[in-house]
Amino acid sequence: MDVDGVVVRDTKQKGLAYFMRCLDEKSRTILYYLWWHRHAEISELRNLFDTSDDSDVLYRLREIINGKSQELWGKTIVDFAQSKIDPLTGEKVLFSWWFVGEDDALMPGGDKSLVDMFNEKDNVIIIAQLPVSVDLTAPDIQVKNSILRVKFKKLIRGKIISR
Q1: CA 20 to CA 110: how far, in whole Å?
Q2: Which of 44, 45, 66, 98 is deepest in the core (most CB within 10 A)?
């Protein structure tokens, strides 16, 4: 049996949640920032984790994030552009790094549980990717014994199932 072949084939089927678990916290922070904002200058990314060194950020972008992306999917997930038009705003953006991953293409099968938490100096940030069938307008938020529970109603054909 070709164990290496099985591992490679299995790994290429992994989605974004698996990919994020393979990254260290600083690299995940950079990728989440780019995913959320679509693009960022190197100074923005450098300020995410208080480093004065662009080379650390560049190493994480090129070697860690894009390296793992290339290994898993055969393509990069972030890219640098000297000049690019943001398709959502029409704004011309100069000298920025862009998230170029296609969310649906990176999340095949049932690997849709992307949840992460960052404990920053002044904040705790929880990031979760939810299915499109969720009503985001009225979450039920509960905290008990330092455990956060957020409950959303599901939508069927654009309508809330129950209230």
Answers
A1: 16
A2: 45
- Percent of the chain at pLDDT exceeding 90: 33
- At a CB cut-off of 8 Å and minimum separation 6, what does 20 contact? 28, 31, 114, 116
Residue labelled with tokens 């164990």: 3
* Amino acid (one-letter) located at 49: F
Structure tokens at 41: 């200058």
Q: Helices 66-73 and 3-12, interaxial angle, to 10°?
A: 110
The span from the CA of 151 to the CA of 135, in Å, is: 10
CA–CA distance, 130 with 110 (Å, rounded to integer): 13
DSSP letters spanning 69-127: HHHHHSS-SEEEEEEEE-TTT--EEEEEEEE---TTTT--TT----EEEEE-SS-EEEE
**What's the pLDDT tens digit per position in 11-40?**
444 677 788 889 999 999 999 899 888 999
For the chain, first and last CA: distance in Å? 53
Task: Find residue 124's DSSP bridge partners.
Answer: 119
pLDDT digits (tens, 9 = 90+) for 121-138: 788 888 887 777 788 888
- Is residue 51 classed exposed, middle or buried when 0-12, 13-18 and 19+ CB atoms within 10 A define those classes? middle
